[in-house]
Design goal:
The protein is an alpha/beta fold and 441 residues long. The protein contains 10 helices and 19 strands.
Length: 441
């Protein structure tokens, strides 16, 4: 449960994998014996980057590249030798046109077995299949059957369902090239992985940019700059609502409204969760907060809308549990001044920092004076004050939000509640003014 951001560096490995796929593709076209493809030098397997190689000197009729754009099960087919690319189309419809097929996509439920017995039966006879992406995208048993029947002209695999793969019916078959997951093992790729890993660390430490994160959302410096104040608001809303509700929370509804909804605002959810759990769990931060909330069985719904009312951007949230729902909303004034603009049905304008006394009452004269006198007797100074009415039809209640120089005792709260018409009174403790969450810096 520590604040550890885990990232990976995919670009260089992907380039190396693409190099391997293209290299495998060009071997038979260059006239190399496929059973002994010339990748063994001095008894060692070698792999070299082909990024600068001139591929178009080889007579490639049609090459099909299946990318990770599989939302509609579509493939991009590229004519390499002085011809125009074929238009996108359904994979199954274009299988009869393929001479060489290489896949470059993650292994998911949608891509597992993407090329199996059914697809091989439709593919152009003699086609060659290459997979340097992930084992399982091609059905290995179907590949064996396709080779034996002559439907496939060749197979090259750098990845397998089980790795390390030490035994496979594909091993030793004619027109088959198998390598032990060497796709990203070029010297160039290994150096570039190290360089870009250091760049990821430098960018995070100097600008706050988070790229290729495994356990949190990616965040670029510009987005962080635009959302920084609202991250603080969301965090403080979580802290406030956890205390104001005071019980076991079962569900959360978080809404982002206005201009910030156009940003990648997912970090606001993480920030709210971190605030919600601040006083009930150790070492909570934006990396682990959402998973801890889920582990506690709290259901969370997040909504966004570009429409806004009185403020350009607002973060609002409600929490429900034990038959009670509490709601609050906040915005940012100026560059970085968090303001509380709504509590339940009451609209207000209060500072979101320090010790806060919130009380609700019938909308009658004398309430503010009474509360001020009670606090004065305890030598508690009021730093800021905001009031608001319940605008619901027929409602005759109001709210007071007092920022105090110090927290009040339970005895003082009890004294406040003695006023005829006082409905509730509660102390809320928020971080001091200008204090950002430690994980935000």
């Amino acid at each position: 449960a520590f604040d550890s951001r885990v990232t990976f560096e995919p670009a260089s490995g992907s380039e190396g994998t693409s190099d391997s796929a293209v290299g495998t593709l060009t071997l038979p076209l260059a006239g190399t014996n496929e059973e002994k493809p010339g990748w063994v030098v001095d008894g060692q397997q070698r792999s070299a980057a082909l990024r600068d190689a001139a591929i178009d000197r080889f007579p490639v009729p049609v090459v099909g590249f299946i990318t990770d754009d599989l939302a509609e099960q579509r493939a991009q087919f590229i004519l390499v030798n002085n011809t125009k690319p074929l238009p996108k189309g359904l994979i199954h419809e274009l299988l009869p046109s393929i001479d060489y097929l290489t896949v470059h996509t993650p292994l998911t439920d949608e891509t597992k077995g993407l090329i199996s017995k059914e697809q091989i039966a439709k593919i152009k006879p003699g086609a060659r299949l290459i997979n340097c992406a992930r084992g399982g995208i091609y059905d290995e048993a179907a590949l064996v059957e396709g080779l034996r029947s002559g439907q496939l002209g060749g197979v090259a695999l750098d990845v397998f369902v089980t790795e390390p793969c030490t035994d496979s019916p594909l091993f030793g078959m004619p027109s088959v090239l198998c390598t032990p997951h060497l796709g990203a093992s070029t010297e160039e790729a290994q150096v570039q992985v190290a360089v870009e890993a250091v760049e990821l660390l430098i960018n995070y430490l100097t600008t706050g940019e988070i790229r290729h994160a495994v356990n949190m959302i990616a965040l670029d410096p510009e987005t962080l700059k635009n959302l920084r104040g609202y991250v603080n608001v969301a965090y403080r809303l979580g802290i406030l609502l956890a205390q104001w509700h005071g019980g076991a929370i079962e569900s959360v509804n978080l809404e982002v409204q206005g201009e910030i909804s156009r940003e990648d605002h997912r970090i606001l959810k993480s920030a709210f969760c971190a605030g919600l759990l601040r006083h009930v769990a150790d070492n909570v931060n934006i990396v682990n907060a959402e998973s801890i909330v889920a582990d506690r069985g709290i259901k969370m719904v997040t909504q966004s809308t570009p429409e806004h009312g009185a403020f350009a951007s607002v973060v609002s949230a409600s929490v429900t549990g034990e038959g009670l729902t509490r709601a609050a909303a906040g915005t940012v004034f100026g560059k970085n001044m968090p303001r509380l603009v709504q509590l339940d049905h009451y609209y207000t304008d209060a500072y979101m920092d320090g010790d806060i006394l919130i009380f609700t009452h019938r909308d009658i004269p004398g309430v503010i004076g009474y509360v001020g006198n009670v606090l004065a007797k305890d030598n508690i100074n009021i730093a800021q004050m905001a009031v608001g009415r319940n605008d619901a039809p027929g409602a005759k209640s109001a709210i007071g939000v007092l920022n105090l120089d110090a927290a009040v005792s339970a005895a003082t709260i009890a004294k406040v509640l003695e006023f005829d018409g006082m409905e509730s009174a509660q102390m809320i403790s928020l971080p001091p003014k200008d204090q950002m969450p430690e994980w935000l810096g």
